[in-house]
């Protein structure tokens, strides 16, 4: 066999091996993005299950704060509905969850106005559970964004961008907070 043919075969084999490795790496990262989103989903489900108990506990002490309860209930229902729809885009899900986060914050602010509620053990337990869930959610969101960053970088960088475009790998969306949540809170005394 001619040495040029052998070199050409070796080069082709190396290119094919690289392409397979690049494709598998992209698939692996895409699956990590899906897994990270699923971890967020688990935490969001736990939070959605906890919210009605928290609302009912606060209702007993602050019956005249019906607007806050309505907001929380509507935001929770929307978040659960969006989560149940398999065609929901991540951006829609993120928006619904951000709305629920704002409603929960308003509920907690309302609860602070009732000292007898602050002394209620059931409320304190629910609030502690919610705090723990919010911390887990923050970690899960951070992990998700880290994985998305790695995946998107792999899609954009040479030479794996060639494989990514050939096989239609799409960039993943970051989990971002709503613009309204970026505002600096105003503290008044």
UniProtKB/TrEMBL annotation:
SUPFAM superfamilies to which the protein is assigned, alphabetical: LemA-like
Membrane-crossing segments per the record: 6-26
Subcellular localization: Membrane
One Pfam family hit: LemA
InterPro entries: LemA-like_dom_sf (IPR023353), MamQ_LemA (IPR007156)
Cellular compartments per GO CC: membrane
Family named by the database record: Belongs to the LemA family.
Identification of the protein by name: LemA family protein
Record lineage: Bacteria, Bacillati, Actinomycetota, Actinomycetes, Bifidobacteriales
